Request: fold
Amino acid sequence: MATKKAQQEKVKLVTRADAANRVVGDLDGQTTLSELVRKADELVVKSGGKSNLATQKDYVRRSLESAASFGLVRLTKPTDTVVEKL
Reply:
């Protein structure tokens, strides 16, 4: 007889780096860094992780800088970083 814990489906934990890459990859227009951070953190929390917006912001920023260096997005910084997919 299987234990109750073994019967429950395991949810794969989404890492902060994976969540950041996913939201940057799913860009479809113009948005802000804050919005991307919120979406990425939401993915981590839904997979069973804990919310940490400050840490998630670092991961999203690194992912965006990589995408910008490849010419995939344009970053402008008046007050909050505005992200636009090219």
Observations:
- Strands lie at 30-32, 73-76, 82-85.
- The mean pLDDT is 88.
